[in-house]
Amino acid sequence: MDLQDIRKRLEDFRSGKLTSAQKEELHQALSALSEEEHASLFPVEDYLQEGKFQLPEEEVNAALNRLKQTVKPAGRVMWLTNWRKISRYAAILMLVVGSTFLLRKTTGLFNRKAGQTFRVMRVPDGNQGTLILKDGTHITINGGSELLYPESFEGAERLVYLKEGEAYFDIAQDVTHPFIVKTPQVRVRVLGTSFSIRDYRDERHASVSVNSGKIALEHLFKAGPWLELAAGNGSVIDKYKGTITKQDIDTTTTTAWMRGELAFQDAALQQVLQVLQHKYAMHFEVKDSALLKRRFTATFRNNSIQNIMQQLKLMGNINYTITDNLILIQ
C-alpha cells in the first residue's frame, strides 16, 4: 500500500467506510512507515483546518484523554497557548494507530531514544511566548509560530524543532551536548550562543541571524558543507531555489520584534504585510499585486495597526479600509 492509498484509506476511515479487516490493514501499513514517509503523509498543518476529520466527539475526547496520560508537561512555561487543535489531530491518529505508534513517529523526528516525550508550544498571531527549557535555554517565540521540544534532553544532542514561525534562542552552554534547531528548511548547530530563526510556511524566504557566538548551518534538502555564521552574520534561504546566501546584518533590526518594535529596511510591501499579519493577527487583501513591490524603510514602536496603516498610506501612496480583522489595500 503506497502513500496515496494510505491517504485514501484515512479519508475512508474518517467517513466510517472501513471494515474491521480494512482498519487492521491500515494499522499495519501505518506502523510500517518510515519517519520520512510519516512526515510526508501527515503534515500537521493539513489537519489543523476546520472541517478535517470530523469524527464523533465522544471518540475524539476518549482518545484525547488517553493522549493526555502519555504526553506530559515539561520545562517552565511562562506563556503557553492552548494546543487543542494539535491534540485533536494526534487523538484522531491514535484512533487509527494507537499512542505507541504516534509517539514513536513524533519523537523520531528528534531522538530515537525510547520513551522520550515532546511538548508543543504554539503561539497565535498577535502574541509572543517565552519558554525556558530544562537545560536553562531561553526561547522567545513570535506570533504564528509552533515549536516542538522534549520533556528532557537525552542522548548526545539537544534537539528542538521550529515547525513554523520565528523564535530567538539564547542557548545554555554545554560543549559536550550541541544544541540543534531544525526547521522545515535547515538545521542549525550550536554549543552556546544566541540567534534567531524565521521560517513561516507562507513566506518564500527563511532566515537565520546570529546575535552572539557562532553557529553552523546546513540545508536539509541540498547537499553541501555546513555554513558557519558568527555574530553579525545572517543567512537567507530561498525555499524555491534551495539556495543559502550569507550576509552581514544589523542585529538590532532582526531582534526588534522582541522589544515590541517593527523595523523595515527597504522592505517590499509584501514583506511588511507578512510581519504585520503575525504581529496584529490581521489578514490582508491586496487588489493590485503591483503594490506589493513598493518599498518601505521605517521603524514602528508600539504602534496600533491603524496608526501603522496610516503611515504606510502616506509613505507609499496606498489606500486601505479596515473591517474587523481584514485590511483591504488598493
UniProtKB/TrEMBL annotation:
Transmembrane segments: 86-103
Domain Protein FecR C-terminal: 262-329
Gene3D superfamilies reported in the protein's UniProt record: 2.60.120.1440, 3.55.50.30
An MF annotation (GO) of this entry: sigma factor antagonist activity
Family matches, as Pfam families: FecR, FecR_C
Ranges where the FecR protein domain occurs: 121-215
Key words, A-Z: Membrane, Transmembrane, Transmembrane helix
Keyword Manganese listed: no
Superkingdom, natural source: Bacteria
UniProt-recorded name of the protein: Ferric-dicitrate binding protein FerR, regulates iron transport through sigma-19
Naturally occurring in which organism (per UniProt): Chitinophaga filiformis
